[in-house]
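P.,

For your records, the input lines for the assembly:
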Amino acid sequence: MLDLQDILKTFNPGTANEVRALRGVTLTLERGSFLIIIGTNGSGKSTLLNAVAGTFRVDSGSITLAGQDITGQPEHRRARLIGRVFQNPFSGTAPNMSIAENLALAARRGQPRGLGWALDHKLRQQIRDRIRSLNMGLEDRIDNAIGTLSGGQRQALTLLMASWLKPDLLLLDEHTAALDPKSADQVIRLTHEIIQRDQLTTLMVTHSMQQAVHLGDRIVMMHRGQVLHDLRGAERTRVRQEDLLNRFDAVRRREQLDSGVADLLQSNYV
Amino acid sequence: MTLLIGAATIGLVLALLALGVYLSFRIFNFPDITADGSITLGAAVASILLVHHWSPLVATLAGFVAGVVAGTLTGVLHTKFKINGLLSGILVMTALYSVNLHVMGKSNIPLLNESTLANQAESLATRLLGGGKSEFLLAGWTVGVRDAALLIGVLLVVLAVGLALYLFFQTNLGTAMRAAGDNPQMVCALGVSVDFIVILGLALSNGLIALSGALLAQYQGFADVQMGIGIVVWGLASVIIGEALVGTKKIGVLITGAVMGSVLFRLLVAIALRWGLNPNDLKLITAAFVFAALVTPAALRKLRLASKPAAT
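Structure tokens returned:
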């Protein structure tokens, strides 16, 4: 379904701020699978998600989604295949527009937009019905500006928008990281429901080990722009939160060792 | 009375300018200086066609189209060549000054002897009133037929344009345009090319501004290459007054507000001039007014915060 081949990306090449964000990532995702990406800060997990979404062009490598090579396509062209929820609840919705208008925009994701009415009676009814299923009491407020809602409510609506037209790929970028624990739980439950119901192929980045072990059917751990571990099948089923934390510790120890060894070499030979 | 009707008519003509400025400045948060050039461009194109005896309607529409081209240019400079928005506007505005001179062939075109929309409205009104009267009584006031005809004609045009704009903002394309100003990242993720939308928005905005210029030239009876200087600030003043008048964020109300703001602003200017304000000071006072209108809300908020006891 999604096929990443040897993706390389360096930001600010040739300057003091050069960051080699992705150093050869190869990853294949089957239809309907739900992949969780974890990793240390700066490991490139969000960058990988943005590479798939098309926020920037990759330096080399290829991205194939639903049988189409999308490597060279700009972000808005890929949008017909991809639904996205951002980390920042403010990113996914237009604050000064109504709930209904936001959803109407999402209802035409990736389709040409002409001079037809954005909201007709039928669509309004559908919007009300789907919003009612969120159980947030928002169905009577669909003409209110989205900016008046809480972060959790906005994230739930963004999720609804991203999945309104069943996307070939759903991208979730730490979409609960900015929410309070209760809202985060609610959004995670909704995420689970929607992905189960529509059998969506999903790529989710998270900081939460709890989410990593309870959601999804495969865990990828990234470090320094590369895939370090890829847990699937039986290995994935067995994995506990402690195991993941241990792997993080191992990475950290190796990191310290590396810098220690470098210092040693430097003092001895330079 | 003639003074008031005249001020209201110019206010309505410039309401089209206000709508254009509203579109670029408020919807996209794009300070589009192209307006200074495109209002003159609209006037220049319409006037030169009128001098060559084209139909006034076609000449006016041609002015609109010329503005669309100018706006597209600014949009392309900004989106495709990544030039700062303010600078793209300045570049196109500066270039338009020469273009306008070329279009007009000289710095001023009088339209007094040409058939214009203004003359057509007047003759239509005279025919409707039946007879050669040049003025009539309305509730005790003497009203010139020409003045009344122009006011009503311009009012109809502004109503039509305002309604069209309102309806446009309810379409798929129009909602995408509003969203592009509100949250570009989101509309991009929903499959809309923000670049395309910005170009389209600026084209539409400058089209409206040029239309305003085309009508203004026909109303005042001449086109002048200097007529656009500082006009974007006038538009902005109208938009800000309109927002203060209506005080909501509903799109239909804001469009009405921009029109009302433009008329009110023009009336205020007319009254101030009548009271002896030096016309040379007009632009200074307008600029000072816009400055005040832009900073007052924030200053008030600060004052209100400061007056509250500090929470511990």
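Two observations worth noting. The CA atoms of residues 242 and 261 of chain B lie 4 Å apart. The first strand of chain B starts at residue 108 and ends at 110.

Regards
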